[in-house]
Structure formats: C-alpha cells, structure tokens
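Problem 12. The chain below contains 287 residues. Write out its predicted structure in token notation.
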Amino acid sequence: MHNLARPAAEAVLEALQEARAGAPALPGLSPMTYARAHRVFEGRSDQRGLIVEHLRRRFADRAPGPVAVLSVGCGDGTVDAPLATLLADAEPARPVRYVGVDPHGDSTAAFAGALGALGRPSLTVETHTTTFAAARVAGPFDVVTFVHSSYYVADLEATLAAAHALLRPGGELLVVSAPRAGLNAVTALLAPAVAGTSQWFGDDVADAVSACGLPLDGVTRLDARLDLEGADDEVLDFTVQARLTPELRPLVRDYLASISPGPGARDVPHPVDVYRVVRPGSRTPEA
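Solution.
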C-alpha cells in the first residue's frame, strides 16, 4: 500500500523541470563539501564493495610478469589498495607499478599513503596531482581505470582515446560509470556543467567508445543499493552534485522515495556499469 501512495517518478521529475525552467544553473559543491559528503554517501551504499570485487576478478586474470596500472581520479586509494595488494601478492612475485592521477592534493596524498601502507616491496607508487589531460604520465599500462571519474572531463571522446593509447597490446581500459536513468535522472537534470559541459553518464561512454572506433569488449551492470532515508542536506546535495535550494530539496526527496522499493528513500537502486575496452594484441614476455 505504501508504494501506491507515492508520487510517480515521472510526475516528480516534471515538477522539478518546471521549478528549474528559466532558472540559472545551481552552484556546484566545494571540494571540502564534496569530500565530506562523499564519505558519508559511500557509507550508505554497497556499490563500492561491488566495484572492488568486480575489479579484483578482472585484475586476477592478468598474466604473470610485471604489471602497470593507471588509476584516473584515484581518490583516497580505497578502491585501489585492495587491487594493488592482489597484484603485489601474486605468485610468482612480480614488480607492480601503480600510478594515481587526481586534481586534488588531499586525494593523491591519501592514495599514496594508503598504497604505501601496504608495505609491499614489489609495489612502486606514483602520483600526479593534476587532471588527466594535463598529466605527463609515461606508459604503457596493462590496465587504466576510471572509477566514477569520467564524468568530470571536458572531452570524453578525446580522454578515452588518450587513455587507450597508453595501453600496451592486450591491456584493458575499464570505465566505471553510472547509467543516466533512475537515481541519475535527477542528477542529469540538476547538476551544473562540469568543465563547460553537461555531466557524462554511461550512455555517453558507450557513444564515445564507438566514436573513437575502439573495441568495446563488454559492459557489466553492478546492481547496488543506496539508503538515503534521513540523509542530511549535504548528502542530498552530493547525490545530485549540486547545492539544492530549500524549495528543491523536498521534491528531490520525493523523487528518491518514488524510485525506492522500500519505505521512504531506503534501498534506492544505485546501479553502475563497467565498460571494458581491450587494446588488440598480446603482451610480449619481456614487457
């Protein structure tokens, strides 16, 4: 009975569209607010764990021998530390080069600290505090990852082409990106432009890969869940990647309730897609 009393998602989106018609873009989040709300938001979702497990399975398939990984938008290393551990602990032992790129110095410092704390002698950690476009990163790499970071680039097609060019033959590009539907329909509507363009989503990744003529090896959907019941305003703002006005917040909460199978905003579907692009060829034994 509870579900029947909820406003339909389409009706709430229409109300949000009417409320935003002709209005200036909402302001974005400050780096401090983003980082603080991100931690809380991640704790309310099981998505990060699903991403790590999926990437662990992908990394476990790497052939023996030296391995190099580039993590674009590395953040604090929470995702990459278990992956670096997996690679460094492989038998037979092998050297592992792990490179993190992120425009925020706090993030790259935390990334370096998290991977350095692993204490693996075979692991070499390198960081670049800048954007991917400005980074001077020497390849080749066996794996390049974008975990929720492809949203923030100015030219998605050029970015993916440049990342693919850094791969050695047989290397793979893994782009973790949210679909535009469901939870992100409201984000697509309300989030301000990033780097002069609207925020990219999964369908944009697929289009960019196709436009580049890259070989898309597959797409895997990870069906995560998110509990936003009782979330404070800061977390709600993070959810839509914008500083909401007092008038918009009730509508956003109504929308979250309308797409949740549970009471209120519990169990909001929080899916993410993993796009895999492989560079043709085989890795040479000496590489």
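Discussion. Confidence is low (pLDDT under 50) at residues 1-5. Students who got a different answer should revisit the alignment rule from Section 12.3.
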